Amino acid sequence: EVGRTLNYLGIQNEVYADIGVAGLWRLQERMEEINSNDVVVVVAGMDAALASVVGGMTHRPVIAVPTSVGYGVAEGGTVALNSMLASCASGLLVTNIDNGYGAGCAALRILNVMQRHSSHG
Predict the structure, then answer these.
(1) How much is the pTM?
(2) What span, in angstroms and rounded, lies between the C-alpha atoms of 121 and 115?
(3) Do 35 and 60 contact (CB within 8 A), yes or no?
(4) Tens of pLDDT along 71-86?
(5) DSSP-derived pairing of the beta strands 93-94 and 40-44
(6) pLDDT tens, 21-47?
(7) What DSSP assignment string belongs to 62-95?
(8) Are the CB atoms for 34 and 16 separated by under 8 Å?
């Protein structure tokens, strides 16, 4: 949903799928590429630890989207949302559960501010 929203708005983006913390090496292998982007959106379910990990591994703005994916105590995304809200990664922006559209719009706002500042520099 984030990617589709940004595509619709004319913003080039890259989707990195299946790089969660359960296979941390997959994330580590992609961090240089991820850090080459101006804004990072992390979409994660279950315990949503990915948001904190990425937030600690990048200096880019990070928008976190908790998903309703999970079972049992994941409670339809409530656990992921609370985990992201309680993250120790400073400056993490968190949307509501499954709100990829909102994350895409927030990324656009950040990119617009960055572009405005770079054109006045």
Answers:
(1) 0.94
(2) 10
(3) yes
(4) 888 899 999 999 999 9
(5) unpaired
(6) 999 999 999 999 999 999 999 999 999
(7) EEEEE-S---GGGGGGHHHHHHHHT-SSTT-EE-
(8) yes
